[in-house]
Amino acid sequence: MKNGELLNKNLAHDSGKKHVSGFAEYTDDISEPLNTLYGAIGWSNKAHARIKKIDLKDVKKSEGVKAVVTYLDIPGRNDVGPVFDGDPIFPKTKVEYYGQPLFAVAASSVELARKAVLKAKVHYKELKPIISIDEALKKNNLLFKPRIIKKGNPTKKILKSKNKISGNFTTGSQEHFYLEGQVALVIPREDNNFLVYSSTQHPSETQQIIAKMLKQKSNSIDVIVRRIGGGFGGKETNFITSAICCLLSHKTNKPIKLRLDRDDDMIITGKRHDFFSDYEVGFNDDGRINGLKLKLASRCGMSPDLSPAINERALLHIDNAYFLKDLEVKNYLCKTNTASSTAFRGFGGNQGMMAIENIIDNISRHLKKDPADVRKINFYGKKNNNITHYGMKIRDNVINELFEELKIKSDYKKRVQKILKFNQKNRFKKKGIAITPVKFGISFTTIHLNQAGALVHIYTDGSVHMNHGGIEMGQGTHTKIAQLVSHSLGLPFEKVQISATNTSKVPNTSASAASSTTDLNGAATLNAVSKIKSNLNNFIKKKYKIFSKIEPLYEDGKIYIGNRVFNYDQIIKEAYLNRISLSSSGFYSTPKINFNKKTFRGRPFYYFCYGSAVTEVTIDTLTGESVLDRVDILQDAGNAINPALEHGQIEGGFIQGQGWLTMEEIVWGKDGKIKTFSPSTYKIPAVTDIPKIFNVEIFKDGLNVEKVVNKAKTTGEPPLMLAMSVFFAIKDAIASISNYNKIPDLSAPATAEKILLSIKKIKNIV
User: Fold this and answer.
1) Nearest in space to 290 (alpha carbons), one of 314, 322, 313
2) Distance of CA 207 to CAs 186, 224, 239, Å?
3) Which residues, 6+ apart, have CB-to-CB distance to 557 below 8 Å?
4) What is the pLDDT of residues 104-124, one digit of tens each?
5) How far apart are CA 765 and CA 35, in angstroms?
6) Is the pLDDT of residue 645 over 90?
7) Are strands 183-189 and 256-259 parallel, antiparallel or unpaired?
8) From the CB of residue 471, how many other CB atoms can be counted at a distance below 10 Å?
9) Band of the pLDDT at 4, cuts 50, 70, 90?
């Protein structure tokens, strides 16, 4: 195979056949050692209360129970907070959310363990919970002081503007609903060491959290992850399952498996942050924004978790694709008696983007203009109006070209006219259409996380073994990195072995998150490969007395140096016999990142991803039901390593975003009990919800201007934001009821109930 054939090629996912045949091994599939015990968690049925007494006598006496653990059994740190304290493994005196773990048991079977925890008698002194954002704001119940970012003089610009509007908007929470739930298997080893198999996006942090809990060194804990069945951020900081599992193993000196059932998983674990926004904006007759004042508030739950970083990302993406010259945003992190909200695909960026897109849409409807035109007039420019509100110059802007290309390819203008005619003729069915842009920054905004390591071996038969710190969670990271390695060495893809992520092989890794997994780990792996190739090149030149400065070419199982050709397998054998190292570690750190979190200035992102989507919907005005008739997507993926995998990410991301914005609804009662805690009460998109016509293309003129692997761009998080077009298409359909004379009052998710309520408001029924 020639150099280049393995890149930009649609190779199958390395685990694809195993996924569909059921042979892909996940944590719960690993063969259990002899004498394995099974864990279960006893959790609080109160959202906010003081613990007067926990009576576990009946639990300990229950059939099959071998051990019970509480906070008293923790030798070291009783907290799994990744950055800030506040997430106790087990609380001492007070519970702060419904579902908070109180204790755990180990028993001879899963059934017996789960039965045992139900026998606990917990006596509480109930306290009044704070559940909603509104309650938290009224009582000033915040995790941190409000943050204010400001650029220019928005108050003055709004006052001088000919046009002004104000309003508020909410985006709802979302359950991760990964197919593989939270699960861990812990095996004790000699010298109080532990082997941990865990469904986690962050093996290194899992290792560190467990070590601190046990008051041990990190080198006593090995964490191994071959693949996880979806994470979406929900397994980035959720260390409680692995920590409790290891604590039980520590107490019993037995292997322990702990797997949460779906209901417990949804009750115990955190969700996407829901956001409230309140705004005032001034603008010209053409729709160009002069000044914007915005209040953003999020439900963070009972502890910080990653809320500061997530809210920071919302502030960084409040512009989406628009140049905002004069801007002020006040950000409130609301502490509530709910499970700590956590990372979710988009990491706060999409909540910020929805806020500005709603404002743009309302400006358009106020002026009775096509929202597409108002969006375009506010776009960032290339030579002017190209500095973000945090001071970063945009050097890779393709949104104008991409947006226009999609408008043409999707026949946007013609369809707008057809929809107008349809709505005039139909009383109960109304159609809507919307086109929305996406500009999404790529990198961890916490600078030190932008690093990765790798380990590469070449064996004497020429086969290659690679290991890196990234987690395979369905996105195809392992496949793409194997393609990079195969291409660099000029070998068949099958000659590269992908192994499980292992903290004993590659230490101190960052989470597989921030859409940076392939960028970081791919570059680290290629760094390791380049060191081995350098060893080989020097060996060949020295042995065969080649003095050419020409860089050797690895291609089709051969090594070319000028007019000399060497067999790769033979050279590997010779190198070994001559004691040349065929193994190397690799490292990579993202360059150019420089962001001051205190001043909110600098360059938090290495590059931006761009995309756009056109969505056409039909709503039933009698039932509130909505149907996606057609979706057209154009996504910038740079020079894609594996276009087929990118297509899968784009489609999947869009559907997940559609779920967030139209049907997935988290409901808490006033007592803090979550009402939507199972597949029977929480609706995610099904096959029937996929658009009837679904056109997905990769932008052909996309190219990463930065030095990333293969000049590619990620498709991890950005495609989810393409689903904003679904929400605004629904809003467009509702607006047609008033002949586009009224702005619909609609917040996300746009469920059938909310659509009906919005229709009633349009008709002045309520």
Assistant:
1) 322
2) 12, 10, 10
3) 490, 491, 492, 567, 568, 569
4) 999 999 999 999 999 999 999
5) 66
6) yes
7) antiparallel
8) 29
9) very low
Q: Which CATH number fits domain 275-445+597-762: 1.10.10.60, 3.30.365.10, 3.30.70.1230, 1.10.4200.10?
A: 3.30.365.10
- What is the rounded distance in angstroms from the CA atom of residue 751 to the CA atom of residue 317? 25
Q: Where are the beta strands (DSSP E) in 471-625?
A: 496-498, 501-502, 553-555, 558-561, 564-567, 583-589, 594-596, 601-603, 607-620
Q: Is the peptide bond before 75 cis (omega within 30 degrees of 0)?
A: no
In this prediction, residue 6 carries a pLDDT of 82
- The three-class DSSP label of residue 304 is coil
Residues 6+ apart with CB under 8 A from 604: 316, 390, 392, 441, 443, 445, 593, 595
224 contacts 500 by C-beta, under 8 angstroms = yes
Residue 406 confidence (pLDDT): 98
Say which DSSP state 255 is in: -
Using a cut of 0.85, tell me whether the model's pTM lies above it: yes
Q: Which residue has the tokens 């290339």?
A: 382
Mean pLDDT score, 258-283? 98
Structure tokens at 432: 């809507």
AA identity, residue 543: K
Q: Is the dihedral of CA 749, 755, 756, 759 positive or negative?
A: positive
What average pLDDT does range 51-76 have in this prediction? 98
Tokens of 130: 């704070």
Gap between the terminal Cα atoms of the chain: 68
Phi (first) and psi of residue 612, to 5 degrees: -155, 150
Give residue-wise pLDDT tens across range 583-615: 999 999 999 999 999 999 999 999 999 999 999
pLDDT at site 548: 86
**Catalytic positions, please?**
717
Buried residues in 323-339 as b, exposed as e (16+ CB within 10 A) = bbbbbbbbbbbbbbbbb
% pLDDT > 90, the chain:
97
614-638 CB burial, b ≥16 within 10 A, e <16: bbbbbbbbeebebebbbbbbbbbbb
Which pLDDT belongs to residue 766?
A: 66
Are 298 and 307 in contact by the 8 Å Cβ rule? The answer is yes
Q: In this predicted model, what pLDDT tens digit does every residue of 619-632 receive, in sequence order?
A: 999 999 999 999 99
- CA 150, CA 574: separation in Å to the nearest integer? 64
**CATH 3.30.365.10 residue ranges for the chain:** 275-445+597-762, 451-589
- Architecture of the structural domain at 451-589: 2-Layer Sandwich (3.30)
The CA distance from 466 to 736, in Å, is 57
Checking if the pLDDT of 457 tops 50, the result is: yes
Q: Domain 32-128+182-228+235-268 is of which CATH architecture?
A: Alpha-Beta Complex (3.90)
For the cut 80, the answer to whether the pLDDT of residue 1 exceeds it is no
